[in-house]
Specification:
The chain has about 160 residues and is of the alpha+beta class. The protein has a single domain, classed as Roll (PH-domain like). It is built from three helices and seven strands. The strands form two sheets. The chain has a four-stranded antiparallel β-sheet. The chain has a three-stranded antiparallel β-sheet with strand order 5-6-7. A hairpin with a 4-residue loop joins strand 6 and strand 7. Helix 1 packs antiparallel against helix 2. The longest helix is centred in the middle third of the chain and has 28 residues.
Length: about 160
């Protein structure tokens, strides 16, 4: 993303950390059967093979976790004084960049978790920004405080 002449960044939003922690939990649950199999087959393996198998499984777990972390935390929504830009990393080498001018924003929809949104740990949801063509220009999943983002954009948006 390159800034235009006279444009400056007002705020940057990243994903909320709670969904990331829940996904890490899923990864840990997914790797548990591999350690269980090692435990069951451990007596029939040599000590060196048993240790190397653990090292390999932990190494794969660390690589999966690092990849997932990079893709999750590199996503961001940038609000400038002229436009809203959403950078969405699909994979470590592929990213989508969507943008819309502040003047073109027609509607902003937010979806949160109801009463749980009152608790900061669960105050995340979906932020959808629509332009005049009534197509969704930007969809930011796991946005922190989507209602707060909406109010912020409306407060800076020129009439």
């Amino acid at each position: 993303m390159h800034l235009r002449e006279g444009e400056h960044i007002l705020k940057i939003f990243h994903h909320h950390p709670t969904p990331f922690v829940l996904n890490v939990g899923k990864i840990i649950i997914g790797i548990f059967p591999f350690f269980l199999m090692l435990y069951l087959f451990g007596p029939s393996m040599t000590t060196a093979a048993y240790v190397w198998a653990h090292v390999i499984i932990v190494g794969i777990f660390i690589m999966i976790l690092a990849y997932h972390s990079l893709v999750y935390w590199m996503d961001r929504m940038i609000i400038t004084n002229q436009r809203v830009v959403y950078i969405n990393w699909k994979h470590i080498t592929v990213r989508d960049e969507d943008e819309t001018e502040l003047n073109d924003i027609q509607d902003i929809h937010t979806k949160e978790r109801g009463l749980l949104a009152a608790i900061d740990a669960f105050d995340y949801g979906v932020f959808k920004l629509q332009t005049a063509s009534h197509t969704t220009a930007i969809t930011f999943d796991d946005a922190p405080d989507p209602e707060g983002i909406r109010q912020y954009i409306y407060s800076i948006k020129p009439n």
